[in-house]
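Weekly modeling sync, notes
Attendees: S.R. (lead), two postdocs, one rotation student

Agenda item 3: backlog of single-chain predictions. S.R. asked that every request posted to the team notebook include the full sequence so nobody has to chase files. The rotation student volunteered to paste the first one in as an example of the format we agreed on. Action items at the bottom.

Example entry:
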Amino acid sequence: MHHKPYGPYEHFIKRPLDCFLAMCALFVLSPIIGITALLVRIKLGSPVFFLQERTGKNEKIFKIYKFRTMTDEKDESGELLSDEVRLTNFGKILRSTSLDELPELINIIKGDMSVVGPRPLLKKYLPWYSEEEHKRHNIRPGLTGYAQIHGRNTVNWDEKFEMDLKYMSHITFVGDVKIILETMGKVFRREGISSETSSTMGDFRDYCISNGRVPERK
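Predicted structure, as returned to the notebook:
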């Protein structure tokens, strides 16, 4: 389903403003980005950046840029250990301060992402969305979003998607500014980062299976 922009801001202003803000942020934060990259190289080794396929606007797949926060530790069979095991204390600091997400400014400039929007999720989740949940891909995913300031990893998947769709129905300049400011406040206070049972958001497929859902698409 084609997404109809809510108003002039979403239709004409949001994308140019995203590029402007991302370029300004890259310039202002370049010392922090450089220092973070150096620390990642020292503590976690190479590569410094973590690239992963995510689902973008119109379900186009793109590679998201982030700083590494985990090791490459594997078990005896050569499989990667769980996220909780591989996530280092240094990585936890990067995540709690959102420093690991600064390279996503490149994705914004490229047009893969927006400053504000639903968070881009893994490609492997595509078959598991309901038809309604697929609509979250009708706009560019965001560096932060409505769901990010209302729980981030502490809310369940149904609540997260409900908030994504709520944001999509009423995208305004004032609303985006509020989300950006609240995000900055939460980053400084380091709130809403991890769920009670995991250092990262749980797997959506596991959530679906535990709730009796099956893939709606092949």
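Discussion: group reviewed the output briefly. The chain has a mean pLDDT of 90.
Action items: rotation student to repeat for the remaining queue; S.R. to check formatting next week.
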